[in-house]
Amino acid sequence: MIAMTNIQLIDKLNAEKRLTEAEWVQIISTYTPDDREYARALAQGIAISGFGKNIFFRGIVEFSNYCKNNCYYCGIRGGNAKLSRYRLTDEDILRCCEKGYESGFRTFVLQGGEDPAFTDERFVGMIHKIKAAYPDCAVTLSIGERSRESYALLRGAGADRFLLRHEAADCEHYAKLHPPYQTLENRMRCLRDLKDLGYQTGAGMMVGSPYQKPEHLARDMIFMADLDPEMVGVGPFIPHSDTPFRDEKAGSVELTLLLISLIRIMLPRVLLPSTTALGTAQADGRKLGVLAGCNVVMPNLSPADVRKKYMLYNNKSGTELTARQGIELLRGQMEEIGYSVIVGRGDYQKV
Ligand code: SAH
Fold first, then answer.
1. β partners of residue 57
2. Does the CB atom of residue 280 touch ligand 1 within 6 A?
3. pTM
4. Domain range spanning residue 319?
5. What distance in angstroms lies between residue 74's CA and the mean position of ligand 1's atoms?
6. How far apart are CA 141 and CA 60, in angstroms?
7. Residue 1, pLDDT score
8. What is the mean pLDDT of residues 264-270?
9. Residue 167 Cβ < 6 Å to ligand 1
10. Is residue 11 assigned to a domain?
11. In ligand 1, which atom is closest to the CA atom of 243?
């Protein structure tokens, strides 16, 4: 059999929404600038035909940097003794939402480390307060692995969406990024439960995380084709100096952009953020993400005094700004490339 060119493979992905593992490995390990541009133009066209030149803003509130986990890549891992820890109160969190609402946000993302002080009761109370104050807004949780009962309770309290990157769909690769008590099996169980409970669910991975090979990314793409998530978060790995991966290389922005385009082609309606990590790795990274097929940007609404403490990786973009400055900067970047930020919840549209 004569091998297909990468451009033929991109067309096949567009037509069939799937590639084999060998085909994924081929694109990921042999793509040229022309292949990248082909995928980018196709993906941008798909995004524009689905959403117009419109971007949804989601406001992230980083409610706590305490974490009981120990992901080797992450700056807020429990084992980082150098980090000064904080937790926001419900009042702090509601003030962040208020600022966001005034700026046109209709989705609030509560993100944090896995902080045992944030019990189910605490989250239920918080979701009720946010929903009572802003009934027209979606609440997204990004709070890590919990029991099915806990996810069910929070969904019942009104949470609409949940972001839980799978991080690595290959078992051996997952084990290189996490300590033995954090298993891929449980991560997958969580994602299945979230989908099953009716959350709009987000998966995703870092590009260029240590020990990652093209085969691993191929499995990530196949896993996402199977899961059919409503949201996907992808950004380059960026080392953090107080983690075991301090001396590892950062992930490639080009490969991240290619994968973003391929994800848009594979999952045409997916809500796909142009991530903070992309904007940190390269100053115009978030604009390039949108031009590659992204349709979501997630500005940080956290209070100025805690931003530097939610440092997942070195030099995280926006930590030196106030919420308002960050929002206006991102709005300006979107306008520079001819996109507008729209007011709306931006739910996943089922066909
Ligand atoms: N504790 C929550 C929120 C995690 S932080 C959870 O486990 O889901 C959000 C995302 O940041 C992670 O899923 C991870 O993919 C990404 N991240 C963490 N450290 C990073 C690093 N060093 N470089 C790039 N992205 C990183």
1. 297
2. no
3. 0.98
4. 16-342
5. 6
6. 10
7. 64
8. 98
9. yes
10. no
11. 22
